[in-house]
Amino acid sequence: MKTPVRIWYVAGQRLCNLSCERCVSIGEWAMSNRYDWKNPEDRDVYEQVVTWIGTRPYPVKVRLGTLGEPFASTFFLERAAWLTRQSDVEYVELLSNAILLPRRLPKLEADANLGKLSLWLTWHDGQVDLERFIKAAAFAQERYGCFVVVNTLLFESNAEAVARARDAAVAAGLRFNVDLGYDPTAAVQDPSAAVPVLQSSDALDTLAALGGNRALAEAALVGITSCRGMLCRAGHDTAFIDIHGQAYRCSNYSSQEQPPLGSVLGPGFDLPLRPEPWAPCAARGGCGNKEDFLNLQIAGPLRPSTVPSLGWTDA
Fold first, then answer.
1. 235 — alpha (psi -120 to 50), left (phi > 0) or beta?
2. Under a CB-based contact definition with an 8 Å cutoff, are residues 249 and 234 in contact?
3. Is the pTM of this model over 0.85?
């Protein structure tokens, strides 16, 4: 039996129904409240990449990311639904704010294997009513058997809101996760700037008290400072595909403009994965994405192996 390959792909879909102050989609790749795909080729690339992923001759575990809200895009969902029906696709994970789930999931039921759908649902305090959010998350889990994680981000002044989300998730029988919130405009090499909550000396204690995984947060801070030379699995059984269809060892290699593994859009392309599990990181800067730093050897014990999610660590 072949080892499954974890693929994290970020598509150019941009339409979002929220306007969060600390949205990670910024600058050239900002989300939009007006258009779904900024350029027609972005949609074409998405279709080609999803088709490539779904036709691999080995098992794959997929996280489909976007610049906006995936459930706001009919075309995005149509191709994601197709992907769930492919025999070698073990799961398809989407990142969402949950609000559109009660409307969209019933429409997907006929065309998707919703039992393969993993939902990483982040609550945005001030943008989404918590009761409505939890109700939508529970609907996906109870009605369709989706793997659901209620996710929150800890910033310098929202511990009380995170606690409310935790209590509501637990009461509804939902998985709960809290991670350190990042400032996407800060230099990631400086954790004190990139992670605002670190302005408080007891930030990790607060995260742990709220139900977060302290060891995971500590690994994140090591990764975001600098992971150059550290042993990492990325490129062995995991890969990142960017908006343009370029494949990389990880998203950090993409952002640091390291040489790609090749283009998914090229005829006959397949991932030239490394046979050795571990290799030193050669990126110049630190990695701030959970999907990346979980591949570091120091995060090995935290790396999920059986759950249908690239971010859930059973904290």
1. left
2. yes
3. yes
